[in-house]
Design a protein that fits this description.
By secondary structure, the protein is α/β, with parallel strands linked by helices. It is built from 16 helices and 29 strands. It has an eight-stranded parallel barrel with strand order 12-13-16-17-18-19-20-21. It is elongated, with a radius of gyration of 28 Å. The N terminus is likely disordered.
Length: 746
C-alpha cells in the first residue's frame, strides 16, 4: 500500500494501481455486530416493519451491482458506529433485516470494490454513503477533504481523481434516518384542479416565510411556516391554485460556494430523492421533518391549493470526477452516472458535472420510486422537472420515445399527476420546447421572451405576440395537446424579478463573488431610462405601469400562468439575476412592501386579474382557437384588430406595430360543462399598446359588439371596482402610452 507521502503521480496518466490508496486514517473501535437476518431485496431503502416471529426491526436493501461487499453502518447518539455486513445478494441488491432497529436510527453504507477510475470504478469503503432511498437525513453536508473518494488536494490536479483517499468520512457527513410510514391520508382532499383552471405560484419555502411578520419566528423558513394560516391566507387571497416549490429534496452546498462563505439557496443540487430537505424543518431532523412536510401539504390542500415540487433528477451533488463521494458515486459509479468513452470523465448535459444514467433500469427505478413516494406517501400533486431534456436522452440524443417518458406514460400513479417539463438541457440538441408528448406541459420560454420584447418595444412585428397570447398553437397544437400545455411565465426564480426587469438594463451579481460573470446577459429588460433604484417619481410611475402591463398580459393569455412569489409585491433582488447562492434579504420576500400604497395596488390588481380569470372560461380555454366563423353573422372565436378597427390582414402581421387588439368570443367556447350544457361567457376585447405615446383605437362595431365597458386600464394606479367607462361600438378611444385596456362586450 502506497501512502500519500510516498506516491508521486507522474506527468500524464499515472500507472493503474488497483486497490492502492493514497491517504490512510486510523479507524475507531466499533461495538459488537448485532444479529442480521436475510430480509428481502424489496422494497429498496430502510423500511421499518415487523419481521419473523413478530419481531420489530428494519429491512435494509441497496442496489450496488458491481460491489464486492456492503456494510450497513448504524450510529448511536454519541456517534459510535456499528458495522454490519450485508451478505444476502439478490439480483444485484444487498439486503438484510436487523431486529431491534427502530425509527429514528441513523445509518449509512460502506461499499467495497475495485478502485479503477480509468474504467469508472470508484469504490472506496472509507467513505460513508447516504442511502439513495433514505426517507430523512440528519445533518448537513459540508465538504472537507475527507468526504472525497480521491485526494482532493493532490498536488497534480489533472490526476487527483485517480488517487484514492483512505480517510474515514463518517464524522463529516449526514446520516440517513429510519422513518416509520404510518400516516393515513384518508382525511386529505386533493384539490385536483384541472390544468386549464390552474394558476401556479413558484415559491421558495424558506424565502417566502423567512420575514413574514404573521408567522411565529420559530416557524419562519420552514414547512410549518408555509402551513401557517398567515402564509396560506396570502395564497388564498391572491387566488393561486398551486404552489410550485423550489427543490425540497435533500441537497448539498457546492464546494466553491462554501469556500466563499456562501450557500446553495435554490437547492438545485440534490443528493436525497426521498428526503425532505432537513434545514427547512422546524421540528428536528431525525425523522420529524417527514411529518412536518405532510402536515404542510394537508394545510395547503385544505385551502384548495395543490403542491407541485421542482425536482432535479438530471444530476446530483456529487459533481464530476473531482467532486465529492456522498452516495451514488461510491455505490456504483458506472451504474448510476453517464460516463464518457474515457470512463474517468462524466457526460455532462446539465452544466453541473454529471448526468444520471436514466437509461439504466435501476436508475430509472430510483427516479420513478421517488416520484411515486412523493405522490402516494407525501401527498404532492405534481412535479416540474429541471432540465427535463436530459432525462429524455436515450444514449446520447433527446428521444421522445425514451425509457423515462415511456415509463411515466404508462405508470398508473404518475400519469395522473401534473407533469411540467423544463424542456431543455445544455447538451447538443437539448432545446425541445414544444416537443414533449401529451400528458406533459412545458415551461414556455418563447412566451417569456416575446412578452418581454413586446413591452420594451423590441419586436419587429406582432406575429409572435399573437401566437403567445392565444396559447402558442404553433408549438402545441399537435398530438392531442391543448393550450394548457404551455406554462406561460414572464419571470422565474432564474433571472430578474419582475420589478428588476423594469429597473435594470444589466445584471448586478457582484454579491455572488464571481466578478459578475455568472448569470445570463440576455435579460430582455428595460430600465425605463435609469439604472437601478431612483427617487425620480416619473420613472417610478412608469415602472409600476410596466409591471401592471406584464402581469395583465400574463393573466389574460391562454395557457397556464405562472407567477413568482413576490412579483405581486414588487420584490427586488437589487439587479441580481442569478441569486442561487443568496440566502439573505436579496432573496427573501420583503412583506413590508404591502404597506406601501404603490405596491399594495399591484397586489390588488394581480388578485383582481386572477379572480377575473377564474370567473371567465373564455380566459382559460381547454381547446385552441379556430379563428373561423361558425355562424352567419361572421363572428369568430378569436379575431385580431389593428388600431384602425379593421381585422388584421396577413400584411398587418408582418408590419412594424406597437398596438394589437385581441377579441375573445364567449359565444364560441368549445366543450360542455359538467352537466353537459354549452359553455357560454362574456366576450372581451384586449388592447395592448407598447408605444411611448397615446394612440387612437377604433372599437369594432357589429357583429362584434354594440358597446364596450372598461374592466382593466393599466394606465391607472388604482383600478375601478366596477366598469366606470362605457364606449359605443365604432367610437375611437384613446389608449394611453404603454398600457393595456381590457373591455367587456356589453
Amino acid at each position: 500500500m502506497t501512502s500519500a507521502a510516498e506516491r508521486r503521480a507522474p506527468a500524464g496518466e499515472p500507472a493503474r494501481s488497483g486497490q492502492k490508496t493514497a491517504v490512510s486514517g486510523a479507524r475507531r473501535a466499533v461495538p459488537p455486530v448485532p444479529a442480521v437476518w436475510p430480509g428481502t431485496p424489496t422494497p429498496l431503502g430502510a423500511r421499518f416493519r415487523t419481521g419473523p416471529d413478530g419481531v420489530a426491526g428494519t429491512n435494509f436493501a441497496l442496489w450496488a451491482a458491481g460491489a464486492e461487499a456492503v456494510r450497513l453502518c448504524l450510529f448511536d447518539e454519541g456517534g459510535r458506529e456499528t458495522r454490519i455486513p450485508l451478505t444476502e445478494l439478490t439480483h444485484e441488491i444487498w439486503h438484510g433485516f436487523v431486529p431491534g432497529v427502530l425509527p429514528g436510527q441513523r445509518y449509512g453504507y460502506r461499499v467495497d470494490g475495485r478502485w479503477d477510475p480509468w474504467t469508472g470504478a470508484r469504490w472506496n469503503p472509507a467513505k460513508l454513503l447516504l442511502d439513495p432511498y433514505a426517507r430523512a437525513v440528519d445533518g448537513e453536508f459540508g465538504l472537507p477533504p475527507q468526504v472525497y473518494g480521491h485526494v482532493r488536494d493532490w498536488p497534480e490536479q489533472h490526476v487527483a481523481d485517480t488517487v484514492r483517499d483512505e480517510r474515514d468520512s463518517a464524522p463529516y457527513v449526514p446520516k440517513g434516518v429510519v422513518v416509520h410510514d404510518d400516516d393515513d391520508w384518508s382525511d386529505d382532499r386533493r384539490p385536483k384542479t384541472p390544468w386549464a383552471d390552474s394558476v401556479i405560484y413558484e415559491l421558495h419555502v424558506r424565502g417566502f416565510t423567512r420575514l413574514h411578520p404573521g408567522i411565529p419566528e420559530e416557524l419562519r423558513g420552514t414547512y410549518a411556516g408555509l402551513a401557517h394560516p398567515a402564509a396560506v391566507e396570502h395564497l388564498v387571497g391572491l387566488g393561486v391554485t398551486a404552489v410550485e416549490l423550489l427543490p425540497v429534496h435533500q441537497f448539498a452546498h457546492e464546494d466553491h460556494l462554501l469556500r466563499r462563505g456562501l450557500r446553495n439557496y435554490w437547492g438545485y443540487n440534490s443528493i436525497g430523492y426521498f428526503a425532505p430537505h432537513a434545514a427547512y424543518a422546524a421540528s428536528g431532523t431525525t425523522g420529524a421533518q417527514v411529518g412536518e412536510f405532510k402536515r404542510m401539504v394537508r394545510a395547503l390542500h385544505a385551502a384548495g391549493i395543490e403542491v407541485i415540487l421542482d425536482v432535479v433528477y438530471n444530476h446530483t451533488a456529487e459533481a464530476g470526477e473531482l467532486g465529492p463521494t456522498l452516495s451514488l458515486k461510491g455505490i456504483d459509479n458506472r451504474g448510476y452516472y453517464r460516463l464518457q468513452d474515457d470512463a474517468r470523465r462524466y457526460a455532462d448535459y446539465t452544466g453541473c458535472g454529471n448526468t444520471l444514467h436514466v437509461v439504466q433500469p435501476q436508475v430509472l427505478r430510483l427516479i420513478t420510486d421517488s416520484l411515486r413516494y412523493w405522490v402516494t406517501e407525501m401527498g404532492v400533486d405534481g412535479f416540474r422537472f429541471d432540465l427535463a431534456a436530459a432525462l429524455a436522452r436515450s444514449m446520447h440524443d433527446v428521444d421522445m420515445l425514451s425509457p423515462f417518458l415511456a415509463v411515466i406514460a404508462q405508470d398508473p400513479v404518475l400519469r395522473r399527476v401534473k407533469l411540467i417539463a423544463e424542456p431543455w438541457d445544455i447538451g447538443s440538441g437539448g432545446y425541445q420546447v414544444g416537443a414533449f408528448p401529451p400528458l406533459w406541459t412545458e415551461w414556455n420560454d418563447r412566451y417569456r421572451n416575446t412578452v418581454r420584447d413586446f413591452w420594451r418595444h423590441a419586436l419587429p412585428d406582432v406575429r409572435e405576440m399573437g401566437y403567445r397570447l392565444s396559447g402558442s398553437s404553433d408549438l402545441y397544437a399537435w398530438g392531442g395537446r391543448r393550450p394548457y400545455a404551455s406554462v406561460n411565465f414572464v419571470t422565474a426564480h432564474d433571472g430578474f424579478t419582475l420589478r428588476d426587469l423594469v429597473s435594470y438594463q444589466s445584471k448586478h451579481n457582484e454579491a455572488n463573488g464571481e466578478n459578475n460573470r455568472d448569470g445570463t446577459d440576455d435579460n430582455r429588460s428595460w430600465n425605463c431610462g435609469t439604472e437601478g433604484e431612483t427617487d425620480d417619481e416619473r420613472v417610478r410611475a412608469l415602472r409600476r405601469r410596466q409591471l401592471r402591463n406584464l402581469l395583465t398580459t400574463l393573466l389574460l393569455s391562454t395557457g397556464v400562468p405562472m407567477l413568482v412569489a413576490g412579483d405581486e409585491l414588487g420584490r427586488t433582488q437589487r439587479g441580481n439575476n442569478n441569486a442561487y447562492c443568496q440566502d439573505d434579504e436579496i432573496s427573501w420576500l420583503d412583506w413590508s412592501l404591502l404597506e406601501e400604497p404603490g405596491w399594495r395596488a399591484l397586489y390588488d390588481l394581480t388578485s383582481r386579474l386572477i379572480a377575473l380569470r377564474h370567473r371567465h372560461p373564455v380566459l382559460r380555454r381547454r381547446a385552441f382557437f379556430s379563428g373561423r366563423a361558425r355562424t352567419a353573422d361572421g363572428l369568430r372565436d378569436l379575431a385580431w384588430f389593428t388600431a384602425r378597427g379593421a381585422e388584421m390582414t396577413e400584411g398587418d402581421w408582418y408590419a412594424p406595430a406597437a398596438t394589437l387588439g385581441m377579441y375573445l368570443s364567449g359565444r364560441d367556447i368549445p366543450g360542455r360543462d359538467e352537466r353537459g350544457a354549452p359553455v357560454v361567457d362574456d366576450s372581451f376585447l384586449a388592447v395592448l399598446h407598447a408605444g411611448d405615446r397615446p394612440t387612437g383605437f377604433l372599437l369594432p362595431g357589429p357583429p362584434w359588439a354594440e358597446r364596450y365597458e372598461v374592466v382593466v386600464d393599466t394606465s391607472r394606479e388604482e383600478q375601478a371596482e366596477s366598469p366606470d367607462t362605457v364606449h359605443p361600438a365604432g367610437a375611437e378611444i384613446v389608449v394611453p402610452a404603454r398600457s393595456v385596456l381590457l373591455l367587456r362586450v356589453a
